[in-house]
Amino acid sequence: MKKKNTAKEKNIAVSVDNLHITYRGLKKTSIRASWKKIAQKVEVFEALKGVSFEIEEGKILGIIGQNGAGKSTMLRAIAGIFSPDKGTINLHGNSISLLSIGVGFNKKLTGKENIYLSGMLLGFSEDEIAKKEKEIIDFADIGDFIHKPVKTYSSGMYSKLAFAITAILETDIMLIDEVLSVGDAKFQEKSYNKMKELISDEHRTVIIVSHSLGTIKELCDEVIWLEKGEIVMKGSASEVIPKYEEFMSA
Amino acid sequence: MNRFFHNIKKYYKYAIRSAKAELKSEVADSYLNWLWWIIEPICFMLIYTFVFGVIFKNNTPFFASFVFIGLTAWEFFNRMITGSVKLIINNRDLVTKVYIPKYILLLAKSFTYLFKMGISLVITFGLMIFQGVSFSWHIIFIIPVFIVLYILSFGMGMILMHFGVTLNDLGNLTNIGLRMIFYLSGIFYNINERLKGRLKFFLLRVNPIAFCMNELRKVMLNGKLPSFEGLLVWLIIGVILCMIGVHVIHKNENSYAKVI
């Protein structure tokens, strides 16, 4: 972990400043249509309108809001999949990953080969993955199927393996879009516990987007309430969630 | 450009692995397995040699080898261009979930195409031995020719990859363009013999594929030196195309996820 910030009391892991994201610019079109449209004004949809916040290292931030509030857009922007149209996102040199299932899987190849494919795509080196390979296979717990092509897996086994990869290959900052519940009841409990373990590591910074207020209440130190691309409220879970519930039932 | 080299260094291992994975999965389900990589080019060569050597009567010496050299270079270029247009859209899952420099996808693809070109080249050598072509040391000059061909295709590929994201029908346009280049590159006829004057001059100099094929045949079949100034010019053009491609992709790649 590289830390530039030497101030002892407060290590900021993520700073988001005046973040604007609009869906515009590139738009799917045909060659013919692009001739006509050059002079026309394109429709602009602002998904985020100037969001700013900071998270300290080791804290868990929850993001709540209605559908279309810009929650997932924000996560993807922090993960570097989108670029901000205005404003900045500073990760202070931390490694980051968006917890997503089965990225870059090739279904015709074995589970083992897919561990490497997916892991390298998440930015890990071959050696790092080799070190964790056994741990991943043990955690996924799918027996001999790890040597069989992924397409022969049941959907439960598929998600077990995919979850194991993202959960064992950890980064400094983890972004979670809906806490995952995959596999059978036994694995669900195991994966939930693993998530909690990952999340509560004191050096790991976590941002969780969820519609389950129970999960947010249980896990998060701080909560941001987003509405139509703007922050409505920011504070501790006990402050924000009652207000949000009030708003939703009104 | 620094960022480009840094990314290549960081991700080339992934590109190799992903290329291997793709090749493996390509043959995983078929009965003849990897034999297809050999059967396919040989059959194409037989078809072309029959049609253009026998039906259209062609007296070019070592005609089968002549055709095969052309096809080897052409197939690589064709695959690069066709492959790059829909590359981002075909990798939707990946592009919307993780950040990866987008030219890494093209790099991985190009490795699979290079592998296939390698097989094709080995078959060509076999064929040349079979036909009794006399090898000369000039054959080492296929290396710079292939490098130029690769850099050119990679540069064009990156640019097409970018426009392929937003223009739905770019594929149709490139298909027409490729068909035209296919017939104007002299894959199954000798531009030097069939055409004269301006047209020949024009085709061999303006069409990089015709140029590369012609140089390959010079060094492989005729034991001559390639045109170094020609190679240099196309190398410079290729590098410029790559720089434009890298620039365009760096500027826009983070918006691709919004579009697809």
At a glance:
The complex is a heterodimer of chains A (250) and B (260). By secondary structure, chain A is an alpha/beta fold.
Give the helix tally of chain B.
Answer: 12
**Main sheet of chain A: which strands, in order across?**
5-6-7-3-8-9
Task: Kindly name the structural category of chain A.
Answer: alpha/beta
Helix content range of the residues of chain A, please? 25-40%
Poorly predicted ranges of chain B: none
Note the run of SSEs of chain A as H and E: EHEEHEEHHHEHEHEEH
Any idea what the radius of gyration of chain B is? 19 Å
CATH top level assignment of the largest domain in chain A? Alpha Beta
Strand content of chain A: 15-25%
Count of beta strands of chain B = 0
Compute the separation of the termini of chain B in Å. Answer: 26 Å
Q: Mean pLDDT of chain B, rounded to whole units?
A: 89
Structural class of chain B: mainly alpha
Q: How does the major sheet of chain B shape up?
A: none
CATH topology of the largest domain in chain A: Rossmann fold
> What is the CATH architecture term of the largest domain in chain A?
3-Layer(aba) Sandwich
Percent of sequence in beta strands of chain B: under 5%
Features:
heterodimer, A: 250 residues, alpha/beta, Rossmann fold, 2 domains, 6-stranded mixed beta sheet, 9 strands, globular, disordered N terminus, B: 260 residues, mainly alpha, 12 helices
